[in-house]
Specification:
15% strand, three-stranded parallel β-sheet, Rossmann fold, alpha/beta, 342 residues, six-stranded mixed β-sheet
Length: 342
Amino acid sequence: MRSPDNHRPKDFAMPNLTRRRVAQGLAGLGASLLIVPRAARAADGFPLSFRHVFGETVFAAPPQRIVTIGWMTQDAVVALGTAPLGVPEQAWGGDENKLLPWLTSALKAQGMALPERINFDSDIPYEQVLALQPDAILAFYSGLTQEQYDRLTAIAPVAAYASAPWAGNWHDITLDAGRVLGKPDAAQGLIDRTNGLIAAAAAAHPEFKGRSFTFASAWVGEPGINVYSLTDPRVQLVGQLGLEPSAGVKALSQQPGYFFKVSFENLSTVDADVVIFLDEGDADSDAIYQNEAMQRFAPIAAHRMLRMTDKAFAMSMSAPSVLGIPWMLERFVPELAKAVAA
């Protein structure tokens, strides 16, 4: 797979002090995983009417046999104490279980069995989903189509995204999972604690405040880079750390879309104090940065660049969640500090 956006529309279609403080914040919450005890009581409020882009889905009771489609949803479900039956197979950035490492850790921490991994690369394997006998299919952050939704509703009630495919943020996805599982207060608690970790990381680095950034990806064979918009969760997360999206990103974000193609000749339009890149991390990707135009790009010329070449690392930013963000902060913040200080 070429990028962490393999299930999204192709995105070419995607200091020691900080480490100590973040670690202390995690320890104060009891673990590096933010999870809700499995015995936490489901709230009242059922039957629940859940509105989404395809209409309305009614859940008579909190579901127990869940299949998830897309990104982030499975993290929220597990963090809220429910073991999903089936989740997307994660080949890009996944561990030996074909799951993202923080999800595997959370499952093991709660004594949950590993869910069945489902390959959604080309389409939905309906028979495999049916065989799991789910009582709910959750696709809060996905590219589910009307046709796919209609077919899935013959298997189980489906909760989809609010308005647009691959749009939303980890706050909303966690809240949606909390509503469907009957644990809205627990979901808000997870959000509050995660935001607390982000705020602690930002406070440990006052030099981040007000520095401009552009978040982009660089894929082999492309005539330029892909710059992520203000609506993208990666950009929003870096913004929470105190940095400011560059003027060029703000201008591009006046149009719809979660990313924008910028040719090598026009890199100056997205100039910033710091540039963050996702790429494959191989020799061919290294060569992209030797392009003459890339070498002239101000943040690269000044060595104010952060390359996220580890695939799990990239996914922790591309699909941030209440499980993935603590994992990400320990790795991303020190590297960002180096780029800002260059």
